[in-house]
Amino acid sequence: MLSGLVALLITGSVFFLALVVMGVLSKAFEQYQERYIVKSMNDLSDMFLFIDPRQMLVLNVASMALLGLFSYFVINPLVCIGATIFGFFLPMLLVKHYRKKRIKKFNHQLVDALQAMANAFKAGLTFQQATEQIAKDSYPPLQQEFGLFTKEVKLGVPMEEALNNMARRVGSDDMDLVAVSTTISRQLGGNMAEMFETLSGTIRERFRLEGKIEALVAQGKLQGWVVSAMPLILGVVLNYMRPDLMQPMLDHWFGYVLVAAIIVMEILGVIIIRRITNIDI
Q1: Least CB-packed of 1, 73, 152, 181 within 10 Å?
Q2: Which of 172, 191, 209 is the last residue of a domain?
Q3: Distance CA 164, CA 135 (A)
Q4: Nearest Cα to 211, choosing from 104, 115, 100, 110?
Q5: How far apart are the first and last CA of the chain?
Q6: How many domains does one find in the chain?
Q7: Do residues 126 and 174 both lie within one domain?
Q8: Do 189 and 117 belong to one domain?
Q9: Phi/psi of residue 56, nearest 5 degrees
Q10: 159 pLDDT exceeds 80?
Q11: Is the peptide bond before 91 cis (omega within 30 degrees of 0)?
Q12: What's residue 1's pLDDT?
């Protein structure tokens, strides 16, 4: 009788604990969808890449499982934990990296587009005609953004609102400057050709300064990567030359703590060096 009552209490406790855990996991999953999945989908749609949210979630799980299993069978269980966590966020990191590359490419195309628009104004074209010509003659991503801009204007969206929509989609500071300058110039009746020539020259000069700064800090970045890679390379070399000295460290909890501390300090060192060498203009 007593044993049956104890078994019943244990079963009930496990059941209610499972309900609590499921509730916590469900809430965490909803927050993950709101913070990461939705943001990634918005970034992809702004880049004219349309993917179903379920496909993005499946991609995250597949990346997590692939990196986790690879690390478990090839390296060791400790690395498997870190690789699994990294694999879960890897697709979102790739989306962020691709968005940065797209913005950089858009900014370089924007310089020539502004000069072409200035020439179009000198030839007597209107603003809408100039943007349509840019959309026809350019390449993605500039072609996509200006093409959507012209379609919005033809559908009745005010030109200032369409410009602000394009600046929001692109996420470029240069495009924000162009949108604000164009809106003010249209409202005050300024010289559009001269304004676009000035903007083109300003952005081109900023690119020149950024290239000069990147050349000056390239040595510091390379030194940072070399110094950061030295402990890892030294550990691999020692493991190859004297595995009897390295193996005890990987068979004891103190060795795992030491490796974890090394990895954390390596990451902090890379972050600090990148912040020092990252000069924003």
Answers
A1: 1
A2: 209
A3: 17
A4: 104
A5: 78
A6: 2
A7: yes
A8: yes
A9: -65, -40
A10: yes
A11: no
A12: 57
